[in-house]
Amino acid sequence: MHRSWQLTIWLFLVLSGFHLVRAQSTPERTYKPSRIEVQILDATTKRPTPARIRITQNGRVVPLLPTEAVAVMYGLWDHEDGYAYQPDSSFYVAGKFTLNLPPGTYQLALSRGNEYLRQQQELVVRPGGAVRKTYTLQRWVNMATRNWYSTDGHIHIRRSPRENPLIMTWLQAEDVNVGALLRMGDFWETYYPQYAYGEKGNYQQGNYLLTTGQEDPRTPELGHAFAIGASNRVRQRDRYYFFDEVFDKIHQLGGLTGYAHQAETFHGYRGLILDGLRGKVDALELLQFCVDEQPLHTEHYYHMLDLGIPLTATAGSDFPWCGQDHGHGPPERTSRIGNARFYTFINGPLTYQNWRKAVQTGHTFVSSGPILDFSATTADRRKAIPGDQLDLKRTDKLTVTVHAYGHADQVPLSALEVVSHGNVIGRITPTDAGQSAAHLSLDVSLESIQRGQWIAARCYAGPGQAAHTTPIYVTVDGGSFHNPETAPRYLDLCEKYLTEIEQALTGPRPETELQAWKYRDGLQTRIVEVRRILDDLRKKYKTP
């Protein structure tokens, strides 16, 4: 038995050595890398254009980066988690790049934001010689020519003036007209600093603009607040949970305020009620990929609207924190600038002042792909777009018109709806006569208007693709646009949220991130104020 075991080992070693010798004696054929030169053109201008590039081979990312890749330090908590590579291992170039690749077949993904058609190209590299390729990116829609300019209202990248041209290339490679770079804060610290705010912090190239803002205060108990368009930042370290004081100062500085993440996460709905009912909040970040794969969440938006409180719809990527990139990378969650954006109608050229004024007016719709054209016209031919108010006489007529635009392959529309007081009053799909996955249109006639209402449009397309407008606010004889049917339930829900805040004020708490209890007296005073407002609304809306 023992000799048999020794013989087995001896045979193994001999055979292994034999194979090793054979492997060492057989020379491997090696090839020098071949040089590839790639140029990306815009189909309309015929000129080189910034683009997003991702190179893979057999499903794996090729770990080679061209020197032309535009690099800016970024990361979670302002750490240097990324540089030239994006979270999905793509990179940005200004219009061309060169790279040395071993022979083989590669897959090249090219894109330039939501308004351009994405491309998947096969790149065959053979031994010896250079490979020269020119690819042309084609728009399926050009919103800037219609005076609708896109904004990513929630980007976290630190910068100095030196980074401006680099970050601008990132913005242009996603075709985002306005990028709002938000300094972020919490109870202890601030992150993603900006060198200046307001006009002094702006950087513009043609129809592309970098501007500043803040996501601060941010708390687990009351949510995350944001501000854009202010001439300076505002931070109250020693009065941190009094969001309203920050909002008031932002308004004095010419900015607008809102709650991030659809008010879904970090109990943002509590802060929205606490500040929104007192007229401190201008906007809600209605579309974003921070909650789940469906970026459009309307529960808290409709809550406020149905109580007669106007809110402008905004959106943002929350780069580099959030994102579900369907069709742009691997299936896991990846953040991408511009994957959630809002469009603003600007009656004139894109300037900082024109943009800020238009956002404050509420002329917006949010989108992760589809495009909406939404308006309402009265019998006397007064026309309104998102954010406008129409005051009618009782029994007046109103015609609502909405078009949704997509692309049959990459933004395939699935449904278009007109919503009033949260109820669908008109719906169309591609299977209806005269409709398609690229264009849906709908007219809704409202006969004999009896009471005020808010009216908005929303649509859905492929996975993760949705859009929603800011409402048109219809009032009758100068009244409110609130919803009397849902007001009792929503007022009770407000009280429930106030009770949640009160429960969060018990302390001290062992969790260091929970600091609301330290501000018990001031928050309780604000809760009492909101309860008085709720009582007034119950009387005004005649609810029990």
From TrEMBL:
It comes from the Bacteria. InterPro entries: Pol/histidinol_Pase-like. SUPFAM superfamilies: PHP domain-like. This is CehA/McbA family metallohydrolase. It comes from Fibrisoma limi BUZ 3.
